[in-house]
Design a protein that fits this description.
Layout lengths: L1 E7 L5 E7 L12 H20 L5 E5 L2 E5 L6 H24 L4 E6 L3
Parallel strand pairs: 1-5
Antiparallel strand pairs: 1-2, 2-4, 3-4
Helix pairs in contact: 1-2
Length: about 110
């Protein structure tokens, strides 16, 4: 199962998004579409944050995992676009969780 962790700050902004694991969704012996979908979303998020917005976020990636950490202080002109990308990604992950139950679990971590 893919595990996703989301942490907001006390103002409601996403500051941490982690994703790890494998869905193991393969009903017909083909490609794991859940893993492929989640990987595409997380890859697009990383590209959007770093190459499109140019945000000073911390990214850590490895085998079947990605961690995004957003600093508390960020130039105002970047803060909005960063949150739009993060919120969109979380909403898309929620859709996958609902449509492929048992393949992805989102955990909401305590705000800091």
């Amino acid at each position: 199962m893919i595990q996703v962790g989301v942490r907001r700050d006390l103002r409601g902004r996403i500051r941490h998004l982690s994703c790890s694991g494998h869905a193991r969704f393969d009903p017909e012996g083909g490609v794991d579409i859940v893993c492929a979908g989640v990987s595409a979303l997380m890859g697009a998020l990383a590209i959007g944050l770093t190459q499109v917005v140019g945000a000073p976020v911390s990214l850590s990636a490895g085998d079947a995992r990605l961690l995004v950490q957003v600093p508390a202080r960020m130039p105002e002109e970047l803060a909005g676009p960063v949150q739009v990308l993060l919120e969109t990604t979380v909403l898309a992950l929620q859709e996958i969780q609902e449509n492929y139950q048992g393949s992805l679990k989102i955990r909401w971590l305590r705000p800091r």
